[in-house]
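A sample follows:
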Amino acid sequence: MSNVTKAIHNKTGDVTVEDLSKQLQVLKDDIASLTSTIGTYGQNKATEVRDTAQLKASELSGAAQARAKETQKQAEDFIRTQPATAIGIAAGAGFLIGLLTARR
């Protein structure tokens, strides 16, 4: 091997292939560390978003269940106070559904 492949000459001094190799290895290690850090950050952020979404879904589910129970209670109260009207509404709804689903 010639001296050209063993050393690169510049104005600041001699830089050997070994020095460049060491610097490249340090650079590779730094890139690997950054990649790992970014991956960990991404996983943590995804977990945070998932937890927030689960909490919000749980809150919405609870609110929907409460609203459904309230609506059911109102319907039952209406049926108890006005049974004839409730039967008429049910019969009318059944008739309309029958018309819409009838085959022709």
Q: What stands out?
A: DSSP finds three helices and two strands in the chain. Confidence is low (pLDDT under 50) at residues 1-7. The chain has one domain: 3-101.
